Amino acid sequence: MDDTQEILRRYHQHQIEEEKEMLLENAELITSFKQMFSEKGITFNDNNFNYVDAIGVVASYPNIVEHLCTGFSKDKEGLIEFKLLNELYENRLPAKGFLYAPNFMLMANPYFRRGFHPNANFAPRFIDLFWKYRNPDVSTLISLDYDRVRINVDNIMYFEEDTWYGAQFNKEIKTITDGIVKLRPPLDIDSNLLDLFFDDTYSLHIKWKTERDRGKKIFEAEEFKTEKITVMMDGKEYHPSRYVHSEFDLGSGCFEHFDGAIHFYTKEEYELIRDSDSNYNSKNNFQIKGGTLKLFKMTGIININTWIEFTSHFFSGNPLIFEYFEGKYPDNIADMIVALRNYNNK
Asked: How does residue 50 score in pLDDT terms, banded at 50, 70 and 90?
């Protein structure tokens, strides 16, 4: 066993021991939660509880949120009015991504987390921005983690310090030429280093389209990860891609609709679409549909700065969105690429 394997083995063992310790420490809390559900005619066992260091003590059960919560319902896309959630539950900043009830905490959808992994921390800084955003002219909706809640209701949080780069952009949206932009990391840089600095991003597809009969300009952006990034759903493996759709009103000069989702592609669909573009379905007989999970939606008067900020952070860790808005990579990424090229050319 080499040093790396030994480090990983010890880390994994530490996680197992920490989980046992934290579940034992919260045994009384877990028993109380079981009792609450038994009164609803639902039996919980120990397998319904686990400890995640980035979250806390978690209770898992299909549609547990629907069993626990009243006073709100999901729309046809599985989203909930965020204003209503804030009226029913406590939005206790800086606990981004959580809403407090007396004996549990609701959480944002796990696809907002790093690497789309349910046990990771929330990717910076979209959820942070969304939790703080207040604008009476904008309706905001969010997707929750409907199968899990945190049950240790306290302010002990796992925070990450992370930096994202503010994007300056041509605010004359109506002057942007319709068409498709496709961005990829440099092809001459070692793939392992690209994974590190580009967060496993394979490409970013952007499309602008003007619909003059409606007086709208449509923006779409879809991010494709490398083939090693997959998620499991219903026993099947899919390639996830983050997707943004926005509508800019040419008359008011503001965005009026803005939503984000995760698309799920089979291996065949992924291999076809990642090297194509947003017009694939209009040019080919084989139609790529994929699955979709809506994660958030904003409607109303959304100014351009807000749209830029939320779009940038939704594509967290991906320098290609910065490149699109700014015309260059962030300085630290650009310096890294230059240094690597200089080293390779020695």
From this structure: very high
Dihedral of the alpha carbons of 75, 79, 84, 87, in degrees to the nearest 10:
140
Q: In sequence order, which ranges of the chain are alpha helices (DSSP H)? A: 3-25, 27-38, 64-68, 82-88, 126-132, 191-197, 267-273, 280-283, 304-314, 319-326, 331-344
Distance between terminal CA atoms of the chain?
34
pTM flag (> 0.90): no
- Token pair recorded at residue 73: 């319902």
pLDDT tens digit sequence for 95-110: 899 999 999 999 999 9
Give the per-residue pLDDT at 274: 85
CA distances from 142 to 2, 110, 146, 322 (A): 45, 12, 11, 25
The vertex-324 CA angle with 318 and 327, nearest 5°, equals 115
Q: In what order do the strands lie in the sheet with 56-60?
A: 49-52, 56-60, 148-150, 105-107, 98-100
Cβ-based burial of 342 (10 A; exposed 0-12, middle 13-18, buried ≥19): exposed
Angle between helices 3-25 and 27-38 (to 10 degrees): 60
- Tokens standing for 277? 């573009």
Residue whose token pair is 């039996």: 43
Which candidate, 140, 153, 157, places its Cα nearest to that of 68? 153
Hey, is 293 helix, strand or coil? strand
Q: Residue 81 pLDDT > 70, yes or no?
A: yes
pLDDT > 90: percent of the chain: 57
Between CA 280 and CA 68 the distance in angstroms is 43
Question: How many angstroms separate the most distant Cα atoms in the chain?
Answer: 71
The helix (run of H) or strand (run of E) holding residue 179 is strand 179-183
∠ CA 282-223-209, nearest 5°, is 45
CA distance 162 to 172: 30
Angle 322-79-63 (CA atoms, 0-180°, nearest 5)? 120
Helices 319-326 and 304-314, interaxial angle, to 10°? 150
